[in-house]
# Entry
Amino acid sequence: MSGGATPAALAALLAALPDAVQEQVEFRGEATLVISPDRVLEVLAFLRDRAASRPAVLTDLTAVDRLPLEPRFEVVYLLTWYDPPARLRVKTRLPGADPQAESVTGLWPAANWLEREVYDLFGIRFRGHPDLTRILLPDDWEGHPLRKDYPLVEEPVEFVGRVPPVPSRAIPWVPQQGE
Amino acid sequence: MADQSRETLTINMGPQHPATHGVLRLVLELEGELIVGARPVIGYLHTGIEKEMETRTYHQNIVFPPRVEYLATMIEEVAYVQAVEKLLGITPPKRCQYIRVILMELSRIASHLVYLGSAGIDLNITSLWMYAFTPRERILDIFEATSGQRMMHGYMRVGGLQWDVPADFVPRVRAEMEELPRRLDEFEALLNDNLLWRGRLEGVAVLPAEEALRYGCTGPVLRGSGVNYDVRRAFPYSSYEEFQFDVPLGERGDAFDRYLVRMEEMRQSRRIILQALDRLPDGPVSVDDRKVVLPPRRELVRSMEAVIHQFKLVSEGLHPPRGEVYSAVESPRGEKGYYIVSDGSNRPARVHIRTPSLCNLQALPVMIYRGYMADVVVAIASTDIILGDVDR
# Structure
């Protein structure tokens, strides 16, 4: 099972910015940090440059919709150090109404398309992003499909005959109550 | 318009263009023949797979990964089931891990052969396409004999395999691996000292190592720039730590280095396969946990308990614990990762696919900046993107 040891960078971060970390989770050998949204840039800049001998690489950036919990959205950053190999997941939680986070495109250009994708599919805005437009969906698309309250429906097919069943009705989505 | 020489021309390339390897659109800004700006436009193949995966059970979702990236299908399936196995905290038996390694490396060879053929056809070496597809076709025949399907196998299961490999699997793969070096030598004899091939690839689409790291590139694109990062080495999975292989690295980071890296990777894959065939352990191919894997057919007629397990697994599926995991494999294009969030129900709360093609494509404007218009095709071919992988 891959996962990597808990990175030394985590210890360095806890020593340097102890008040930045709100929560620390260890699951299946993977370390996850929760930080407050206003300290994202500070923490990630520290992790990139000063936490280990080599700079960290932004492997992945995505988001999770936790409806009906509040704060509703989580933006997830996955950092990787190549030598020695280590991974660290950093998360920040955003409110359901007008979710906004700081853009990390200044730290890694790799974040450019990944943040556009999160904006496109979740409607989370990134302050300071150079070109925050839709990337996967057409520009005139309405709504953000990966939100949990966005229904999964099929486009009407322009053929005469059987109407395909709506998949979300076949497998209805049931909100999970409570944590 | 006082300074006529600074005038640029914007032209559109794609999305229906034979050299974009799918439906990729590029908006290029030209200054004469030189490219001074490029903007890839993606999303033409977006099918909402991540949303679909949230509405289906963990077992039903096995059909999606090979449709995300359709050239290295076995690797895709392993990438997904491995993430679910990590979520459940189970490890498949050794025999399953070794068979997975063999099939994944065969997939890697098949995928690199498609790269070779399509990179050749972009430069009008059409015979290379035919040559490269012959060994690929035989690998797909092995997949068909093993799983019943040539591309969309559905052979991997959470906790194991659909069934054991056929009786002639080992001699057949071995015969294929004995044939492979002769074919690779043939390709290299055709290309390595070919004036046209080298002239078009050398010094073209250069990506410096620091840029590759900043853009999160992985796979042959990163290793062609000389950075030693291979998920099989850094975060071993499926018993890769038990095999000996080299990680080939480039020096200049141009299209020719990426070609050399891929050729050498095929030889290293053959090396891994031969080791796995020699040491293939006996035993079961799935974990012995009825809460995860379907009971064998013969038990269903004797045991009521097996019938209940079968019913629960088919009608409800797995219930992994609450939590989130990220599990990555080394696909032919780079690091392919599945990030799965479980809320304790039988369907994932969120599946995110970290695709190598997206990150590698993002670096394309850097590669082709101040390059010639005609080299854009070479640059796209050398990144070896799959648009299904970019758009999901």
Remarks:
- The longest strand of chain B covers residues 323-331.
- Residues 94-122 of chain B form the longest helix (29 residues).
- The domain at 50-367+374-391 of chain B is CATH 1.10.645.10 (Cytochrome-c3 Hydrogenase; chain B).
- Chain B has one domain: 50-367+374-391.
